[in-house]
Design brief:
- By secondary structure, the protein is an alpha/beta fold.
- The protein has one domain: STAS domain (Transcription Regulator spoIIAA, 2-Layer Sandwich), CATH 3.30.750.
- It is about 40% helix and about 25% strand.
- It has 4 helices and 7 strands, in the order E-E-E-H-E-E-H-E-H-E-H.
- The protein has helices spanning about 25-40, 60-75, 85-95, 110-115; strands at about 5-10, 15, 25, 45-50, 55-60, 80-85, 105.
- Strands 1-2-4-6-7 form a 5-stranded mixed beta sheet.
- Strand 1 (about 5-10) and strand 2 (about 15) form a beta hairpin.
- Helix 1 (about 25-40) runs parallel beside helix 2 (about 60-75).
- The termini are far apart.
């Protein structure tokens, strides 16, 4: 099965959903890495929200891809944030200490609010 990425723009933020892929494993990483890294190459100061609501499992190669995406966005003056993490993914991020690297939000709306100008 081919990995489905649901990529859409909300204002000037790119929201990436993982469709019906509940596992971000090595084969999925091979399929989606070009598209994800291409989001950074496509825009200046990329602002990306990874909506993890459907993701139950994240492999080591997937963690590496997320770190590469974050690094590339940082280098371009942008930012990558996560939202709607399931408990098993939150636990993995805590164990690997990546919860200190990635900002995460409970909901997509909260993640999008991160990028809205303050009133």
């Amino acid at each position: 099965m081919s990995a489905q990425l649901n990529i859409r723009a909300v204002d000037d933020v790119t929201v990436v959903g993982f469709g019906d892929r509940s596992k971000l494993d090595a084969s999925t990483v091979d399929e989606i890495s070009g598209a994800l890294l291409g989001l950074v190459a496509a825009g200046s100061r990329p602002r990306i929200v990874l909506d993890m609501v459907d993701v139950h499992f994240v492999s080591s190669p997937a963690l590496s891809l997320l770190l590469s995406l974050r690094r590339a966005a940082d280098d371009a003056g942008g930012e990558v944030v996560l939202c709607a993490l399931r408990s098993e993914v939150q636990r993995l991020l805590r164990i690997t200490r990546l919860d200190k690297v990635f900002l995460s939000f409970d909901t997509l709306e909260a993640a999008l609010a991160r990028f809205r100008p303050s009133a």
